[in-house]
Description:
The structure holds two protein chains of two kinds.
Chain A: E1 3-7, E2 10-12, E3 18-25, E4 34-39, E5 45-51, E6 58-60, E7 68-73, E8 78-83, E9 92-100, E10 103-107, E11 111-115
Parallel strand pairs in A: 2-11
Antiparallel strand pairs in A: 1-3, 3-8, 4-5, 4-9, 5-6, 7-8, 9-10, 9-11
Chain B: E1 9-12, E2 18-23, E3 35-40, E4 47-50, E5 64-69, E6 72-77, E7 86-93, E8 101-103, E9 107-111
Parallel strand pairs in B: 1-9
Antiparallel strand pairs in B: 2-6, 3-4, 3-7, 5-6, 7-8, 7-9
Amino acid sequence: EVQLVESGGGLVQPGGSLRLSCSASGITFRNYAMHWVRQAPGKGLEYVSSITSDGDSTYYADSVKGRFTISRDNSKNTLYLQMSSLRGEDTAVYFCVQPSDWLPFYWGQGTPVTVSS
Amino acid sequence: QSALTQPASVSGSPGQSITISCTGTSGDIGSYDLVSWYQHHPGKAPKVMIFEVTKRPSGVSNRFSGSKSGNTASLTISGLQAEDEADYYCCSFAGSITFPYVFGTGTKVNVV
Protein backbone atom coordinates (compact mmCIF):
# COMPACT_ATOMS: atom_id res chain seq x y z
CA GLU A 1 0.00 0.00 0.00
CA VAL A 2 1.36 3.38 -0.99
CA GLN A 3 1.63 5.83 1.90
CA LEU A 4 2.67 9.45 1.67
CA VAL A 5 2.96 11.28 4.99
CA GLU A 6 3.58 15.02 5.05
CA SER A 7 4.97 16.93 8.00
CA GLY A 8 6.48 20.29 8.84
CA GLY A 9 3.47 22.57 8.43
CA GLY A 10 2.55 25.22 10.95
CA LEU A 11 2.13 28.91 11.65
CA VAL A 12 4.76 31.27 10.23
CA GLN A 13 4.96 35.03 9.91
CA PRO A 14 4.91 36.76 6.54
CA GLY A 15 8.39 36.74 5.08
CA GLY A 16 9.33 33.66 7.05
CA SER A 17 10.44 30.20 5.99
CA LEU A 18 9.26 26.65 6.49
CA ARG A 19 10.39 23.25 5.24
CA LEU A 20 7.85 20.57 4.48
CA SER A 21 8.73 16.88 4.30
CA CYS A 22 6.95 13.92 2.75
CA SER A 23 7.91 10.41 3.74
CA ALA A 24 7.01 7.74 1.20
CA SER A 25 6.48 4.02 1.69
CA GLY A 26 5.01 1.21 -0.37
CA ILE A 27 6.68 2.45 -3.55
CA THR A 28 10.17 2.34 -5.04
CA PHE A 29 10.52 6.04 -4.36
CA ARG A 30 13.59 6.59 -6.53
CA ASN A 31 11.67 5.48 -9.63
CA TYR A 32 9.03 8.21 -9.48
CA ALA A 33 8.77 11.90 -10.12
CA MET A 34 7.04 13.64 -7.21
CA HIS A 35 4.88 16.73 -6.94
CA TRP A 36 3.49 19.19 -4.40
CA VAL A 37 -0.08 20.42 -4.73
CA ARG A 38 -1.83 22.88 -2.39
CA GLN A 39 -5.34 23.91 -1.44
CA ALA A 40 -5.99 27.33 0.06
CA PRO A 41 -8.91 27.64 2.50
CA GLY A 42 -12.20 27.47 0.63
CA LYS A 43 -10.40 27.19 -2.71
CA GLY A 44 -9.57 24.49 -5.21
CA LEU A 45 -6.43 22.50 -5.82
CA GLU A 46 -3.32 24.13 -7.29
CA TYR A 47 -0.16 22.58 -8.73
CA VAL A 48 2.91 23.91 -6.91
CA SER A 49 6.05 22.08 -7.95
CA SER A 50 7.52 18.88 -9.32
CA ILE A 51 10.85 17.04 -9.36
CA THR A 52 12.13 14.24 -11.55
CA SER A 53 12.92 10.82 -10.12
CA ASP A 54 16.66 11.51 -9.96
CA GLY A 55 16.20 15.04 -8.62
CA ASP A 56 18.05 16.59 -11.53
CA SER A 57 15.15 18.66 -12.85
CA THR A 58 12.67 20.79 -10.94
CA TYR A 59 9.66 22.82 -12.00
CA TYR A 60 7.52 25.43 -10.29
CA ALA A 61 4.23 27.25 -10.68
CA ASP A 62 4.75 30.94 -11.40
CA SER A 63 3.15 31.81 -8.06
CA VAL A 64 6.02 30.21 -6.10
CA LYS A 65 8.96 30.43 -8.50
CA GLY A 66 12.02 31.94 -6.87
CA ARG A 67 10.62 31.44 -3.35
CA PHE A 68 10.08 27.67 -3.06
CA THR A 69 12.62 24.88 -3.64
CA ILE A 70 11.68 21.26 -4.15
CA SER A 71 14.21 18.53 -3.42
CA ARG A 72 14.40 14.87 -2.53
CA ASP A 73 16.58 12.33 -0.75
CA ASN A 74 16.09 8.98 -2.42
CA SER A 75 18.16 7.24 0.27
CA LYS A 76 15.55 8.35 2.81
CA ASN A 77 12.46 8.02 0.59
CA THR A 78 11.68 11.63 1.41
CA LEU A 79 10.48 14.64 -0.58
CA TYR A 80 10.98 18.21 0.62
CA LEU A 81 9.59 21.65 -0.07
CA GLN A 82 11.62 24.57 1.25
CA MET A 83 9.40 27.62 1.37
CA SER A 84 10.78 31.12 1.92
CA SER A 85 9.53 34.70 1.65
CA LEU A 86 6.13 33.34 2.60
CA ARG A 87 3.02 35.40 1.93
CA GLY A 88 -0.54 35.27 3.15
CA GLU A 89 -1.62 33.74 -0.13
CA ASP A 90 0.63 30.76 0.55
CA THR A 91 -1.70 29.75 3.38
CA ALA A 92 -2.95 26.31 2.35
CA VAL A 93 -2.88 22.61 2.97
CA TYR A 94 0.11 21.20 1.10
CA PHE A 95 -0.20 17.72 -0.40
CA CYS A 96 2.58 15.41 -1.46
CA VAL A 97 1.62 13.62 -4.68
CA GLN A 98 2.98 10.70 -6.66
CA PRO A 99 1.95 11.10 -10.29
CA SER A 100 1.17 8.50 -12.92
CA ASP A 101 1.20 9.50 -16.59
CA TRP A 102 1.78 13.12 -15.55
CA LEU A 103 -1.32 13.46 -13.37
CA PRO A 104 -1.58 13.03 -9.59
CA PHE A 105 -2.35 9.49 -8.53
CA TYR A 106 -1.46 8.85 -4.90
CA TRP A 107 -1.88 11.65 -2.37
CA GLY A 108 -0.89 12.26 1.22
CA GLN A 109 -3.32 13.71 3.75
CA GLY A 110 -1.61 17.07 3.61
CA THR A 111 0.06 19.39 6.09
CA PRO A 112 -1.43 22.83 6.84
CA VAL A 113 0.60 26.00 6.48
CA THR A 114 -0.68 29.29 7.87
CA VAL A 115 1.11 32.54 7.05
CA SER A 116 -0.02 35.22 9.44
CA SER A 117 1.34 37.77 11.88
CA GLN B 1 -3.59 28.33 -17.30
CA SER B 2 -7.18 28.80 -16.16
CA ALA B 3 -8.92 26.30 -13.93
CA LEU B 4 -11.30 23.86 -15.54
CA THR B 5 -14.95 24.71 -14.94
CA GLN B 6 -17.12 22.49 -12.77
CA PRO B 7 -20.54 23.11 -11.22
CA ALA B 8 -20.22 24.25 -7.62
CA SER B 9 -22.58 21.57 -6.36
CA VAL B 10 -24.65 18.63 -7.52
CA SER B 11 -27.29 16.90 -5.44
CA GLY B 12 -29.00 13.55 -5.69
CA SER B 13 -30.97 11.06 -3.66
CA PRO B 14 -29.65 7.65 -2.64
CA GLY B 15 -29.83 5.28 -5.59
CA GLN B 16 -29.96 8.02 -8.21
CA SER B 17 -27.31 8.81 -10.80
CA ILE B 18 -25.57 12.15 -11.08
CA THR B 19 -23.11 13.56 -13.59
CA ILE B 20 -20.44 16.18 -12.95
CA SER B 21 -19.13 18.10 -15.93
CA CYS B 22 -15.64 19.51 -16.32
CA THR B 23 -15.11 22.02 -19.12
CA GLY B 24 -11.70 22.97 -20.37
CA THR B 25 -10.21 24.08 -23.66
CA SER B 26 -8.65 22.68 -26.78
CA GLY B 27 -5.31 23.14 -25.02
CA ASP B 28 -6.05 20.70 -22.22
CA ILE B 29 -9.06 18.36 -22.16
CA GLY B 30 -9.62 18.72 -25.88
CA SER B 31 -6.08 17.67 -26.78
CA TYR B 32 -5.24 14.83 -24.41
CA ASP B 33 -6.88 11.69 -23.08
CA LEU B 34 -5.31 12.42 -19.72
CA VAL B 35 -8.14 13.39 -17.41
CA SER B 36 -8.44 12.24 -13.82
CA TRP B 37 -11.13 12.62 -11.19
CA TYR B 38 -10.50 12.81 -7.45
CA GLN B 39 -12.79 12.34 -4.48
CA HIS B 40 -11.87 14.43 -1.45
CA HIS B 41 -13.34 14.14 1.99
CA PRO B 42 -11.97 17.20 3.85
CA GLY B 43 -9.15 16.29 6.19
CA LYS B 44 -8.34 13.13 4.27
CA ALA B 45 -6.11 12.33 1.33
CA PRO B 46 -7.75 12.89 -2.05
CA LYS B 47 -8.44 9.62 -3.84
CA VAL B 48 -8.23 9.01 -7.57
CA MET B 49 -11.53 7.63 -8.85
CA ILE B 50 -10.92 7.80 -12.61
CA PHE B 51 -7.73 8.21 -14.64
CA GLU B 52 -7.04 8.45 -18.36
CA VAL B 53 -10.64 9.60 -18.89
CA THR B 54 -12.36 6.26 -18.35
CA LYS B 55 -10.15 3.93 -16.30
CA ARG B 56 -10.92 2.94 -12.70
CA PRO B 57 -8.10 2.11 -10.29
CA SER B 58 -8.26 -1.21 -8.53
CA GLY B 59 -10.68 -1.02 -5.62
CA VAL B 60 -12.82 1.81 -6.96
CA SER B 61 -16.48 0.93 -7.32
CA ASN B 62 -17.84 0.43 -10.83
CA ARG B 63 -20.55 2.92 -9.88
CA PHE B 64 -18.02 5.55 -10.93
CA SER B 65 -17.46 6.09 -14.64
CA GLY B 66 -15.79 8.74 -16.77
CA SER B 67 -16.17 10.03 -20.29
CA LYS B 68 -15.07 12.88 -22.54
CA SER B 69 -16.48 14.75 -25.49
CA GLY B 70 -14.58 17.59 -27.08
CA ASN B 71 -13.37 19.96 -24.38
CA THR B 72 -15.64 18.54 -21.68
CA ALA B 73 -15.06 15.57 -19.41
CA SER B 74 -17.70 14.03 -17.20
CA LEU B 75 -17.88 11.87 -14.08
CA THR B 76 -21.02 9.84 -13.49
CA ILE B 77 -21.85 8.30 -10.14
CA SER B 78 -24.62 5.74 -10.35
CA GLY B 79 -26.50 4.21 -7.44
CA LEU B 80 -25.61 7.20 -5.28
CA GLN B 81 -24.68 6.32 -1.70
CA ALA B 82 -24.29 8.45 1.44
CA GLU B 83 -20.54 7.78 1.44
CA ASP B 84 -20.27 9.44 -1.98
CA GLU B 85 -20.92 12.83 -0.40
CA ALA B 86 -17.61 14.65 -0.89
CA ASP B 87 -15.81 17.18 -3.04
CA TYR B 88 -14.85 16.04 -6.53
CA TYR B 89 -12.12 17.55 -8.69
CA CYS B 90 -11.25 16.91 -12.30
CA CYS B 91 -7.73 17.35 -13.59
CA SER B 92 -6.32 17.47 -17.10
CA PHE B 93 -2.85 17.31 -18.56
CA ALA B 94 -1.99 20.78 -19.79
CA GLY B 95 0.75 19.87 -22.23
CA SER B 96 3.75 21.46 -20.56
CA ILE B 97 6.44 19.91 -18.39
CA THR B 98 6.75 23.23 -16.55
CA PHE B 99 3.01 23.30 -15.80
CA PRO B 100 1.84 19.74 -16.28
CA TYR B 101 -1.80 19.88 -15.24
CA VAL B 102 -4.73 22.04 -14.32
CA PHE B 103 -7.47 21.23 -11.83
CA GLY B 104 -11.17 21.87 -11.97
CA THR B 105 -12.89 24.32 -9.66
CA GLY B 106 -14.39 21.48 -7.64
CA THR B 107 -17.92 20.14 -7.14
CA LYS B 108 -19.59 19.36 -3.83
CA VAL B 109 -21.77 16.30 -4.17
CA ASN B 110 -24.66 16.27 -1.74
CA VAL B 111 -26.61 13.09 -1.06
CA VAL B 112 -30.00 14.29 0.13
